[in-house]
């Protein structure tokens, strides 16, 4: 809080919120309409183009915090109005935010953009190495022994190098280093590999250590035989968010059921839902097999 001396010489503290003034170029009516419930909000420029999409359990509180943040002045300078869309809860807000960012690609959203080269590592049943596979080639929602989700080949390789170094694995066996037959990898020469490349560690033991290291990266299969509805309710708004194969399909329409398109694995939806869905923390209703 700021301090100042008042007219009678007393030192007082002033609350910045009391002296806050709304940016004059942003439509005041759009700000006054913001609710204190969960949902998403959209900063739009003078042409109506979305420049930023966010989410919050309290839309009004979160938007006003943006308006008070000096580091976001460039975004605020581009903003002419702020729209909102309520959701039944936090999960719905997270799903809708990810969906709209992919759809609109707002200039000030750096995360949750469309992933063009989603990939992960496959562990062959009888092999010692890893195989880098891509989402465009196989269905990640129904793939066993899949580990790690990455936005590019480079990101996947960098993550694997870190894992190899952390657990003393062999970079040569995992395709990160080329060596001549019978020679040890460079990591073994400097004491960072236990020598599976040179026969000092069995391939079976190396594979076991690799699988243990990969546990935190394991990708869960879609646990249902079709679409499900995730039920949320907040202040009189009840929504059922339809999800299939780790893909968000939107809010269930009221009234008659409609046929749903088959979902395709979405890395952001997976990261949002995996923990609460598998832990049984969400209210679920079955929709229809696809």
Automatic annotation (TrEMBL):
All copies of domain GIY-YIG, residue ranges: 36-110
Matching PANTHER family? EXCINUCLEASE CHO, UVRC/OXIDOREDUCTASE
GO cellular component: a single term = excinuclease repair complex
Sorted keywords for this record are:
DNA damage, DNA excision, DNA repair, Endonuclease, Excision nuclease, Hydrolase, Nuclease, SOS response
UniProt cross-references to CDD domains, sorted A to Z? GIY-YIG_UvrC_Cho (cd10434)
Which protein is depicted?
Excinuclease cho
What the entry lists under PROSITE patterns is as follows: GIY_YIG
One of this protein's GO BP terms?
nucleotide-excision repair
Lineage, top-rank taxon, reads Bacteria
Q: Name one GO molecular function term.
A: hydrolase activity
């Amino acid at each position: 809080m700021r301090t100042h001396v008042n007219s009678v010489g007393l030192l007082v503290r002033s609350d910045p919120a009391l002296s806050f003034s709304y940016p004059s170029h942003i439509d005041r009516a759009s700000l006054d309409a913001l609710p204190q419930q969960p949902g998403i909000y959209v900063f739009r420029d003078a042409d109506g183009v979305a420049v930023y999409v966010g989410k919050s359990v309290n839309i009004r509180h979160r938007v006003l915090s943006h308006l008070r943040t000096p580091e976001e002045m460039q975004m605020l300078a581009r903003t002419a109005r702020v729209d909102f869309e309520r959701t039944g809860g936090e999960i719905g807000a997270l799903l809708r935010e990810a969906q709209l960012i992919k759809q609109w690609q707002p200039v000030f959203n750096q995360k949750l953009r469309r992933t063009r080269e989603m990939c992960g590592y496959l562990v062959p049943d009888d092999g010692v190495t890893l195989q880098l596979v891509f989402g465009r080639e196989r269905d990640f929602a129904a793939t066993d022994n899949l580990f790690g989700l990455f936005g590019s080949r480079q990101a996947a390789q960098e993550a694997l190098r870190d894992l190899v170094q952390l657990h003393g694995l062999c970079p040569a066996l995992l395709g990160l280093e080329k060596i001549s037959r019978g020679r040890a990898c460079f990591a073994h020469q400097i004491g960072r590999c236990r020598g599976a490349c040179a026969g000092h560690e069995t391939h079976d033991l190396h594979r076991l250590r690799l699988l243990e290291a990969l546990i935190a990266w394991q990708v869960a299969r879609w646990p249902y035989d079709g679409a499900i509805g995730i039920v949320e309710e907040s202040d009189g708004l009840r929504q059922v968010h339809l999800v299939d194969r780790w893909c968000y399909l939107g809010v269930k329409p009221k009234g008659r059921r409609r046929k749903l398109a088959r979902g395709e694995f979405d890395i952001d939806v997976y990261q949002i839902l995996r923990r609460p869905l598998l832990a049984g923390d969400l209210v679920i209703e079955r929709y229809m097999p696809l």
